[in-house]
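hey m, so remember when u said the tokens were messed up on ur end? i reran from scratch. heres the input so u can diff it against urs
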Amino acid sequence: SEPMLLSVTTERLSSGTNTTDGARLDVSARSFWTPLDRAFTDIRVLNPQAQSNCVPIKQMYINHERQKKNMYMDRVLQVEKATFTPLVFFNNGRNGGRGH
């Protein structure tokens, strides 16, 4: 199952951060980037031909990755004391951002 994030208590997180109790990310792993550290990732699969994606492909990746970072980066760094990597893929399997 998706890993549940720790509750936000006194941390001051940036605007747009998901502070909901019971919030979850898609994947959590130990020793992914560095030994013994915990890493979280959240995956978004998008259709580049959708009307909502009416920008150049590179900008699509940047926009979707930025949305994930805005929602979770501060919380994972400050509350979980872990790393966060958003992964963005097209529905044809092509990837962008940190996933390439």
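this time it looks ok to me. Residues 57-80 form the longest helix (24 residues). if urs says something different then somethings off w ur setup not the seq
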